[in-house]
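Researcher: Structure prediction, please.
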Amino acid sequence: MSGAASLALALSLALPAQARDTAADRNIANSGKMSDRDFYRAMACAARPGGACTLPYRRWAASKCSDLTVGIAFRSKHFPAKRAHAIEEAARAAIDQINKTGAALHLSYAGARPADINLYLTDTPVGGTVRGTPSMRLNGRRLGPGTVAKVTFYWQTNTGRITDADIAFSRDIQMRDIRSVVLEEIVQSLGFSTDLEDPYYTQSSIFSENGNSVTRLIGQDAMTLRSHYPPR
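Model: Predicted structure follows.
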């Protein structure tokens, strides 16, 4: 084995194993209001009410939470300018909503600078496959049937610590949905990879699978962020 190969192997062994989790790959079905504990565990570790966790808890490091950045990393020339501007404004609004929950989090907008949570405005149709971005991690990934955006966050398997996140948006996202969808994807990049199928929450929770109308973090949504990132 060459010296370079030996060094590469040593470095790969020294680095912690990393996994990726795509939000909304798992849905929790329920009917009616959940207790705060069941709601939080459903979102944070994909536990059905009264059941066991099916995912580990994933969080950004405490040292990172005080300065977590969000920015547009890429915009396809085919992505409509009006929608791009609306996404930027929605990202700023989402940051404001998250910062107001009382959780131990402080997000800021990074603009076009490298960020922790990167937004990719792609030339992908609804439900299509992402192509042509500078991210090899995103290219080739499907948004899924009827899906206009998808977040993937990356985490260390030994610690559950999130290291970075990518959010891909379809060129076909509708203006009326942008504010809610952007808020949902950024919230999910904080360690939540479950959507909720429950008619009770359609108009009240950002985690609802069946609606794109929620634009504020209140009630059990805000409680979930505080539970995941307890105030110091």
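Model: The CA atoms of residues 109 and 162 lie 19 Å apart.
Researcher: Thanks, that helps.
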